[in-house]
Amino acid sequence: MRGVSSVEDTVRVVIAEDSVLLREGLTRLLTDRGHEVVAGVGDADALIKVIGELNDAGELPDVVVADVRMPPTHTDEGVRASIRLRRAYPDLGVLVLSQYVEEQYATELLAGSSRGIGYLLKDRVAEVREFVDAVVRVAEGGTALDPEVVAQLLGRSRKQDVLDRLTPREREVLGLMAEGRTNSAVARQLVVSDGAVEKHVSNIFLKLGLSPSDGDHRRVLAVLTYLNS
User: Fold this and answer.
1) With the CA atoms of 133, 14, 152 and 214 taken in that order, what torsion angle do they form, in degrees rounded to the nearest 10?
2) pLDDT in tens, the chain (229 residues)
């Protein structure tokens, strides 16, 4: 079971995906890289049940990877089950996969917790390493948001006053932070120095009212404050 701030090298995963081929494919990707898929299910009810059983046995996994659309209606069962699990098990990481951005549910999922959340678009999960890294990052309590998800959620928020507090460059940095990038990765993307990024991040924390007492989760809190204000 996951600790407060870190996991062992092996991440324990439950996969919820109604396509048997995709479920087996994701299982193979993860197990080939040393992670443990403790269960694979094909619908939201089975997901809720297996997580409950694992929790009762003291074996809550580190992260759930769930499709947004699952039986019986193939609309939003998967993401609604993910939101329910986040409320019931705050230490459980949740990474949802979708064909498109469900803004309402994405916002609700993000608002439910300040750690261990991911939302990726299936057609953008082209790089195996990036996908596995996202699973591990969410298991460790971080975020993994698809750039398109960030763009749509930030675009919807642009009419709100909180954006007036940030410069265009700070908004750009925050968008990259929301994708789960480190300061060094942000610096490489923007072709600036690490020090410049650190200064932007400090300004973002200050403008969003996040004090040093919020600890290592200030990055995630900054993203959530921005997207849900």
Assistant:
1) -70
2) 444 334 447 899 999 999 999 999 999 999 999 999 999 999 999 999 999 999 999 999 999 999 998 888 888 889 889 989 988 998 899 999 988 777 767 777 776 555 688 888 887 676 788 899 999 999 988 888 887 777 676 565 544 556 677 888 998 898 888 777 888 989 999 999 999 999 999 888 888 777 665 445 567 667 766 665 5
**Torsion of Cα atoms, 215 then 221 then 226 then 228, to 10°:** -150
Give the separation between CA 192 and CA 75, rounded to whole angstroms.
42
Question: What is this structure's pTM?
Answer: 0.69
